Amino acid sequence: MAEPLQKKLQAELEKYQQLQKELGRAVAARQKLETQLTENNIVQEELQLLDESNCIFRLLGPVLLRQELRQAREHVGKRLQYIGGELKRYEQQMQELERRSEQQRELLGRLQQELQARP
């Protein structure tokens, strides 16, 4: 009689482990985005120190291309907006995964109690 309950517990444990893996991937992706955000903020600060007489170059593949200061500032601003949006998206995803993990953890606890209560 405990066999079906044991199988259900194992299946739910696998679901929980999968949620934890997804959460780990989301955390890693968010950390990467935070690094990119920091780098782009530094670039934006450096670009603010320049005037139109300075030459700006952009690395595109293996080639350095000359770019106008205005274009460089716009490009970095757009990247910052994009990264900010992605960070918000990952934060929401992580909150959802944490909520689902907590529900799964509670279910596992109930199943373990039920299994231990059986003779």
From TrEMBL:
Establish whether keyword Coiled coil is in the entry. yes
The record, for CDD domains, names: Prefoldin_6
InterPro entries, per this entry?
PFD_beta-like, Prefoldin
The question of whether Heme is a record keyword is answered with no
Q: Which GO terms describe its biological process?
A: chaperone-mediated protein complex assembly; protein folding
Q: Which UniProt keywords apply?
A: Chaperone, Coiled coil
Gene Ontology molecular function: protein-folding chaperone binding; unfolded protein binding
| Coiled-coil spans in chain | 2-36, 80-114
Instruction: Kindly list the GO CC terms recorded for this protein.
Output: cytoplasm; prefoldin complex
- Which family is this sequence assigned to? Belongs to the prefoldin subunit beta family.
What job does the chain carry out? Binds specifically to cytosolic chaperonin (c-CPN) and transfers target proteins to it. Binds to nascent polypeptide chain and promotes folding in an environment in which there are many competing pathways for nonnative proteins.
PANTHER family (alphabetical): PREFOLDIN SUBUNIT 6
Query: Quaternary structure per UniProt?
Result: Heterohexamer of two PFD-alpha type and four PFD-beta type subunits. Component of the PAQosome complex which is responsible for the biogenesis of several protein complexes and which consists of R2TP complex members RUVBL1, RUVBL2, RPAP3 and PIH1D1, URI complex members PFDN2, PFDN6, PDRG1, UXT and URI1 as well as ASDURF, POLR2E and DNAAF10/WDR92.
Record protein name field: Prefoldin subunit 6
Q: Please tell me the species this chain comes from.
A: Taeniopygia guttata
* GN (gene name): PFDN6
